Amino acid sequence: MSQASSKTTFTEWSNIPWAKVRRKVFKLQKAIYQAVKSENKAKARRLQKILHKSYYACGSFLAGTLTSSKAC
Fold it and tell me: What's the number of domains the chain is made of?
């Protein structure tokens, strides 16, 4: 990785609103837990899919650094 590329990546990582990311991911995880606990498998599965494709959990907000990933 070149020096310029490394510096750009670090700048992008340092500009991420980590508190917001953690809050949104945790909220989805909590909803999944509650759905599983209440034995609502369909809702749990749907929420898992939402989390998997989530803008915050996926990392697509990193301005292209992870957008090439097929999972996102």
Answer: 1
